[in-house]
Amino acid sequence: MTNQEHRAQTILAIDFGAATTRANLFDVVEGVYRHIATGEAPSTFGAPYRDVLEGLRHALEDIQAVTGRRLYSDQNPIISPVDPDGHGVDLVTATSSGGPALRAVLVGLLPQFSLAAAARATEGAHLQIVETLSLTDGRTPQQQLDAVYRARPELIVFAGGKDDGARESVLRLTETIGLACYRLGGGERQVVYAGNAALKDKVSSLLSTIADVHIAPNVQPTLGAVTTLSAGQELARATIAARAGSIGGLREMAAYSQGRLLPTAQAAGVLLQFMSKGTTPWRRILYADVGSQSTAVIAAIDGKLNLRVDPDLGVGLSAAATLRSEGLEAFARWLPGEPAVDAIRDFVETKSRVAPHTVPVNADDLYAEAALARAALRGSLRRARGITNRHDLIIGGGATLANTPHPGLAALILLDALNPVGATLLMLDRHHLVPTLGATAYFNPLAPVQVLENGGLLTLGTALSLGTTGRATSALAHGKLTDEDGGTVDFEITAGVLKTLPLSAGRSARLTVKPRRDVDAGAGPGRAVNTRVLGGSLGVVLDGRGRPCQPPTDPAERAEALQTWMHALTEG
User: Fold this and answer.
1) Contact of 211 with 182, CB cutoff 8 Å
2) CA 345 to each of CA 321, 323, 327, 349, 367: distance values in angstroms, whole numbers, following the listed order
3) CB proximity list for 59: less than 8 A, separation 6 or greater
């Protein structure tokens, strides 16, 4: 880190989403970094602009109107550094998740080893896997070459051979990749090589004249040892490079952010890793981001990251894809009354093709959008590897959750879709700070800490969720909440019931729970829990609806249950 970066005070953090471009301004107030303002505007990846700077300009106008600080000029998309009159910013960071998923081909020696490792490395990237190649896929080299040509990839991820292992097989596949790139022509393709380290120079020399080659550490340096983090970082750079070739303004933003224009999910992962390593009280953190085009679930446990991005799961541009992937029942189960199949399909098609970025205008649309969000989150979580339902902290992000008319609805979607068990603090990232602060941490690690400490995220409260599949109406658990002043509230959690106890934001309390012996309150079936909890805008949420949470199948009962659960978290 340079001295100039460390001294930077005014920070502009930008995120280019599929639907919305957001700009967050951070500055030092009374000696600490604080979130000053947010500007938002529709993203301009597509026609007629096809240039992200147009949407950015409108987002910056929002901040200028609030702060009086001029951030751009006719000559510069961003004024940086701060000029003598105090306009502009000292540091710019940028992230991006917009634009269609990149078409990608995975290449590996064997499906169960290097090809599987390559697939794991791409789980956090905004990609559409259109073809896979391996030595044992049954096709001749010519057939493989034809397959890659038909797939027309923008990016190729190539893994194979442990370090100092296979050579001829790796070079044979390199030749196929090279011929395919040459045959495709039409500009450089991105190739990420994460195979036998002994061959990295050879592979680079063979491909560098016809493709932009990125060398990453081997994803499988020894048999059975899969390490994808470093490869994922190089893949992120390749992804941004591929987008910059076809989307105006991204190269300029990469220059402003000193070469670190990061994918949004990767930047969010940086912050979550940082938070879970001991800088916060939480060791098991889950970030759930539901967007128009994609959904991401990112878990960090003691600094270990598990990142999943699904570009075919979303509530706007990808609404129809979400319905196809998760099925009608996964959507309809969260709608009150008897679902009308034609009406559901009309709503989803309208969201995908006509008005992907609109907000709900009535109760029916609100229920429908929330149902899409639940389906997208459940689908992404199901596809993810190794993410459990035990979390100290869950953070909800993305416009769908951040823009709910009441934060209680965002909490309800998170509980319904993620099915946590035990005591879990819920927060809401209303201004999309998690990824932007993650990108900022590369240059100024102090700013994210201080912004979070000063209320950057909205604390919803602590949810105590009971793990049970029982449908009985009898008590599942008894407990007591003792606040800082010694005041106590005794409570009972009943099967199928969702309710709250008052506990203000900034206050803590001691929660003791004794569950029924077949009920898990977070410590195992029948085991008592005694823990300190934090309050928030919702207080303490007591969830006795079972895991996984499933609304009644009878239409009348379902309508009553959904309305009752909604009322429990959005009224009062």
Assistant:
1) no
2) 11, 9, 11, 6, 15
3) 14, 21, 22, 23, 39, 40, 41
Q: 6 pLDDT exceeds 50?
A: no
Give the whole-angstrom CA distance, residue 465 versus residue 513: 11
Element (H, E) at 16: strand 11-16
- Give the up-direction half-sphere exposure of residue 304: CA atoms within 13 A in the CB hemisphere: 7
pLDDT of 7 strictly over 60? no
DSSP state of 155: E
Q: Which residues pair with 35 in a beta bridge?
A: 26
Report residue 82: phi and psi, to 5°. Answer: -60, 135
Kindly report the backbone phi and psi dihedral angles of residue 465, in degrees, each rounded to the nearest multiple of 5, phi listed first. Answer: -110, 130
Tokens matching residue 248: 């105006």
Residues 91-130 as b/e (b if ≥16 CB within 10 A, e otherwise) read bbbbbbbbbbbbbbbbbbbbeebbbbbbbbbbbbbbbebb
Burial 49-68 (b: 16+ CB within 10 A, else e): bebbbbbbbebbebbbeeee
Residue 195: CB atoms within 10 A of its CB come to 34
Is residue 41 within 8 A of residue 30, CB to CB? The reply is no
Give, as one character, the DSSP assignment of residue 146: H
| CA 112 from centre of chain | 27
Contact 509, 540 (CB under 8 A): yes
310 token code pair: 């699904």
pLDDT confidence of 541, banded at 50, 70, 90?
Answer: very high
Can you list the domains of the chain with their CATH numbers? 3-98+248-259 (3.30.420.40), 102-244 (3.40.50.10700), 265-570 (no CATH)
Say how far residue 440 (Cα) sits from the centre of its chain. Answer: 17
Which is higher by pLDDT, 387 or 46? 387
Distance from the Cα of residue 98 to its chain's centroid: 13
Condensed to tens digits (0 to 9), the pLDDT of residues 468-500 reads: 865 556 899 999 999 999 999 999 999 999 999
Report the candidate in 253, 505, 272 with the shortest Cα–Cα distance to residue 387. Answer: 272
Give me the residues paired with residue 91 across strands: 11
Structure tokens at 225: 């040892």
Q: State how far the alpha carbon of 107 is from the alpha carbons of 110, 111, 204, 423, in Å.
A: 9, 9, 15, 43
Tokens of 442: 């590369």
Contact of 242 with 217, CB cutoff 8 Å? no
pTM of the model: 0.90
Give tens-digit pLDDT for 322-339: 999 999 999 999 999 887
* pLDDT of the residue at 239: 85
